[in-house]
Design brief:
This protein is of the alpha/beta class and about 375 residues long. About 45% of the residues lie in helices and about 20% in strands. It has 12 helices and 12 strands. The strands form 3 sheets. It has a 5-stranded mixed β-sheet with strand order 2-4-5-7-6. It has a 5-stranded parallel β-sheet with strand order 9-8-10-11-12, with helices on both faces. Helix 1 packs antiparallel against helix 2, helix 1 packs parallel to helix 8 and helix 3 packs across helix 4. The longest helix is centred in the N-terminal third of the chain and has 27 residues. It is globular and about 75 Å long.
Amino acid sequence: AGGIAHDLNNLLTGIKGRNSLLMTQEQLQPAVRQGLEEIDAYADSAASLTRQLLGFARGGKYEVTSTDVNRLIEETATMFGRTRKELTISLSLDENAGAILADRHQIEQVFLNLYINAWQAMEERRGGLRIETSMADVDENSGVAAGIEPGRYVKISIADTGEGMDKDTVDRIFEPFFSTKKRGQGTGLGLASVYGIVKNHHGSVEVESVKGEGTTFTLYFPAGKDGGSSKARTSATGPVRGQGKILLVDDEEYIAELSRELLSSLGYEVVSVTSAGKAIEIFQAEDAKFDLVIFDMIMPEMDGEQLFARLQHVRPEVKFLLSSGYSIDGQAARIMSQGCDGFIQKPFGLQEVSDKIKAILKP
């Protein structure tokens, strides 16, 4: 699943990047601009599917930030309620329920999957959905039973008034591709991805269901050490132009070329290469004065971690931005811990890469 998601994210980078370049052209006909905006939305939808693939496979998190659970529930419940007006949604959110360290988009995906699952379980798609948050202390015995470490947790309960499930169904609901829906109405990945994402955030998910009465999903996430929320925001003023010399390293030739065009359109001087060996050769030249290196993590001959170590040793003053179709866990986390200045998740377009470079170079 991780390999498939990586390859799809590379292709989606090509689609989003090329599309964002086309959208910068002046005097586009309204119908053309609308079409390009729809292409971008489709690419974002496809990217959410790759996140879901990694989610149920427990393939790692993308960008972990301090995330306000109550605010995220309010936003997702409001958004979902607008499209499901026959559903009564009630919230009971404990103001003391603090933040969790999480990938905001993946936790949003968890909530929406559970909302959709609850709605589909209701007769004639009518009923009630109640969402509650609180703080909970998990002792050693409870932690062993739930598969989590003892400590302080944010507890989230999502209860519906649907038709409920029997024990055999409850025992299988988190299996990938298991579904009680008719063919064509579901993939069986929704709850599997919920389970994978929660576990990958060092949390747990429990289910209680009574046939004919409804179902309650209870989630536990380790409480963050701070109470604030740092929801990632992109610039509202459009891509930011800048100055500087950038070395771009990606073994996929179409991504290297497209990324060069994206960065050049923002005003940067760009040298793009498709091998780590060539990157080292150029970087070590006496006249090489780069402000930033953007490098891929998975490459033949030498991976991103090895390349970063070599380049950083030569010129430690240069800034580095890691790019990958995989998550920020594992090897990417090691690279970040060794002093890399930023991480950008594929697929990305002009706005995303502009914001990342601005944050790193701080022009």
